[in-house]
Every structure is written in C-alpha cells, then in structure tokens.
Design goal:
Low-confidence stretches: none
Distance between the termini: 98 Å
Helix content: over 70%
Largest sheet: none
Number of strands: 0
Order of helices and strands: HHH
Structural class: mainly alpha
Oligomer: single chain
Number of helices: 3
Amino acid sequence: MVVLLVIEAVIVAGLTAVCELHFRSIRRMQPELARVQGIQASIGQLIAESLEYSKKNQSILKVLESTGLRSQPSQSQPVQQQQGRSQTR
C-alpha cells in the first residue's frame, strides 16, 4: 500500500513538472503572440482604410483586386445595366 502511494506521488510530481515546463514556455511566447496580434490588427486597419479610400479614388481598385481584397466586377453586371437603360428609353 505504501509503495502505491510512493509511485502515485512520483507520477504526480512528474506530471506537475511537465505542466510547469509547458506553462513557462507559454509565458515566454506571450510577448511574441501580442506582437503578432498587433501586426494583424494593423494590417486589418490598413485593409479597411484601403477599401474606404477606393470609394474616393478608383485607381487603387486594380491593386485591391490583384491582392484578393476586393472581388473583380462580374461581366454580367454591365450587361444588366445596359439592358435596363435600353428598356427605359
């Protein structure tokens, strides 16, 4: 019975040590994670500002479309607009 308690205590101590090592590595990574999240937030703001700017300056649309930030206009849209104009005349 005492042997089982000693074995359990050794196992618990081992698991505690492993958990502590993992928690230390996670704590060491937190500043890096915060830095990456800051970069992601900055990129998100830049994208939002670029999309807003595209409303005022259409020349940036090709750049936004080439990077996938804005979808390219479909070919069916101008046809529908032309058909609508011809019907109203």
